[in-house]
Design goal:
Blueprint (H helix, E strand, L loop, with lengths): L8 H8 L7 E6 L7 E7 L3 E6 L5 H16 L17 E3 L2 E7 L11 H15 L15 H11 L6 H15 L10 E4 L8 E4 L2 E5 L6 E4 L1 H11 L9 H12 L6 H5 L1 H16 L3 H15 L3 H9 L3
Antiparallel strand pairs: 1-2, 2-3, 3-5, 4-5, 6-9, 7-8
Helix pairs in contact: 3-6, 3-7, 4-5, 4-9, 6-7, 6-9, 9-10
Length: 312
Amino acid sequence: MAVKTTFSKDVLSKILSDFDIGKFKKSKPFKLGAVQTNLLIETTKDKVVFRYYESRSEKYALFEVNILQHLAKHSYSCPAPIRNNHGIFLGKYKNKPFALFEFMDGKHKKNVNPKLIAQAIGKLHKITEGYKPKYYQFRDTYDQKSCWKNATTNSKKIKSKTEAKKRLQWLKVELGKLKIPNNLSRGVCHCDTHPSNFLYKNSKLSAVLDFDDASYIPLLYDVANMIYFWAWPPEKKLNFQKVRSIIIEYNKRRKLTNIEKEHLFDMLKMVNFMSIGWFIHDGPDFQSDKKRIEHLNSMDRKEFYNKIFKNE
């Protein structure tokens, strides 16, 4: 359980007094989630989720609450933010923002059909395509510039300067090979389609959680992100059968454009590069993602494209 800040009963009671959701009864931390402090709070009226942004600015957090409100209005299965008695979503405790969200019922599952994920992400993109939320500029761009910035910063954690330089040189060359056009369709991407961010009830997907990493970027990033998590087991080759299945289900909600199909190869690399940027200092993680890039390099864009889209 990842709780970075402990909240007493009195503090939580005082926070809840500014909301029309009943009086505080009890709270407990969630088992999953390692970046922010998230608590399940039970009141005399309901259950709510308390999210304390440990490492985010107010404007960064406002992106999340605003997009979740927008999605809730479009009947998307996600935790809607709750306004306080003054009509606003964010509060502050010790100069850090917090928000309350609706509690979403359901359970986490490790072994599920990725078709459900693809449909949920496709619906997300259908709702947000072309929609530029407020405060989008305070979110990550998930591109070469972002990757390089993270990599140069995190490479300083590598004890050997020679090894750090070697990894950065390799990364610089590989980033230069990418072909990601500027005219790809944009909207809100979840950016973290890890299994822990989905809930299920009666064999159906009941909620999409945790938009802490979400951003206004090319929608293709999420498609590649799903492939990374759901069709590419660690230390194994890419499962193109699962990739095709994900694409088919995604297309039921929002169809990939021709230019997106042509550059899925590059965007899948970009997802791997973002991971490298964050964990370039971690030997096993770096080598794992490096092998994935080398696996993609073993084929060209045309071969990759044909394995997925040739028989459409």
